[in-house]
Write a structure and sequence with these properties.
The protein is α+β, with helices and mostly antiparallel strands. Helices cover about 35% and strands about 20% of the residues. The strands form 3 sheets. Strands 1-5-6-13-12-11-8-7 form an 8-stranded mixed sheet, with helices on both faces. A 3-stranded antiparallel sheet has the order 2-4-3, with no helix packed on it. The model has no long low-confidence stretch (mean pLDDT about 95).
């Protein structure tokens, strides 16, 4: 069990293609054809982006695909160093050439951008972010190509609370639920009795409480059980802090979400963390399905604490981290909502490759073809 829990801390994916063949549905029939899917994608993405900006008071900005290594703004996703960005020399005729990196997420860049765009308290930005994550296992809901609505919003020190986090999560859930209602009205064939609608409200649960419910199970199995047995949509709070079994719910980077700040549960118990994930039960794949990660961002104090816990104090010399330490960028809350993940769910698709175009292994494409899943090339 210890080995299983350790293996589940990072590195998403099912890990073998025979296992994928077992879990992908045998009776799959897409409810929209390829052309209808493209029309629906455009409509539902527009709905989500517009309503997300309205609910959270955001405005749309451009976002980089390439950053410099020295900036320190790229996202390393997990603090174990297992997922590294693509690097390349850039700039013909320059000596030395620039050290370019393809972004893995815009998480840190967004907080710097709040200063760049002079955002005030209660105001924020939304991006149509594209990234490459080369170290993912490529399965039905993980690809090397990543598309997200990455957003960030300025808050005050007094707003760095679970109350602020939960209010923001509820607003995001309102947008996702509204998008489902909207797109099912536009395409009535998506209303299929086999696939229940999303609940009007999601359930908040702390990672420590989820562990107490299923103490012998690894993280993904705990998530699967709570979604299939109790709640079809949850927000798991406190991801990154070490739980009572000696492991964090999942590894989290040390330099953006705050997972060390002490908090108090509704019934008065001490907890930690001002971040979390929205997960739902996917009735098509019959599996757990993550939609977004988000959180209140670190202060200069919690940044140092988390980097120390992660043995990454050398990061403090980088420009992004120096900006936090010297109060040059605002306090914030932010997150990333997976575009293909969300549209895959709302359009009742069995595979990310039905709603986004990227590369997939031949073995996976053969499995999908046998299962009547048309993966876009």
């Amino acid at each position: 069990m210890t080995t299983a829990k350790q293996a589940d801390l990072a590195g998403p994916g099912i890990s073998t293609y025979p296992e994928i063949e077992k879990i992908l549905p045998d009776d799959y029939r897409p409810l929209l054809d390829a052309k209808q899917t493209q029309h629906a994608l455009h409509a539902v993405k527009r709905y989500i982006e517009d309503h997300l900006c309205k609910e959270l008071n955001l405005f749309h900005v451009e976002v980089p695909l390439i950053v410099s290594r020295e900036s320190g703004v790229n996202d390393y996703l997990d603090r174990d160093g297992s997922r590294t960005p693509i690097e390349f020399p850039c700039g013909l005729g320059i000596q030395p050439r620039l050290n370019g990196q393809v972004v893995q997420a815009a998480t840190k860049w967004k907080r710097l951008a709040l200063r760049e765009f002079d955002c005030k308290v209660g105001e924020g930005i939304c991006t149509d972010m594209r990234a490459v994550r080369k170290d993912y296992f490529l399965d039905h809901d993980h690809s090397a190509y990543v598309d997200q609505w990455d957003w960030e919003k300025v808050i005050t020190a007094e707003q760095r609370t679970l109350s602020t986090l939960k209010d923001t999560v509820r607003r995001i859930w309102k947008v996702i639920k509204g998008a489902e209602t909207f797109i099912h009205a536009e395409f009535p064939q998506l209303r299929d009795p086999r696939f229940p609608a999303l609940p009007d409200e999601l359930t908040f649960i702390h990672a420590e409480d989820l562990l107490a419910m299923y103490p012998d199970l690894p993280r993904k199995q705990r998530e699967t059980r709570v979604l299939s047995e109790k709640h079809a949509a949850v927000f798991i709070i406190g991801i990154g802090w070490v739980l009572k079994d000696g492991y964090p719910h999942e590894m989290r980077a040390a330099d953006y979400d705050d997972w060390v700040t002490p908090t108090v549960s509704d019934d008065g118990r001490p907890m930690h963390g001002l971040n979390g994930d929205i997960l739902v039960w996917n009735p098509v794949t019959k599996r757990r399905h993550e939609l977004t990660s988000m959180g209140v961002r670190v202060t200069k104090e919690t940044l140092k604490q988390q980097l120390e816990l992660s043995n990454q104090l050398d990061f403090l010399k980088l420009p992004y981290h120096q900006a936090i330490l010297n109060d040059r960028i605002p306090l914030s809350i932010g997150g990333g909502i997976g575009q293909s993940r969300t549209t895959m769910l709302l359009l009742r698709k069995a595979h990310l490759g039905e709603v986004s175009v990227t590369m997939w292994p031949d073995e996976l494409k053969r499995i999908c073809a046998k299962k009547n899943i048309h993966v876009l090339d």
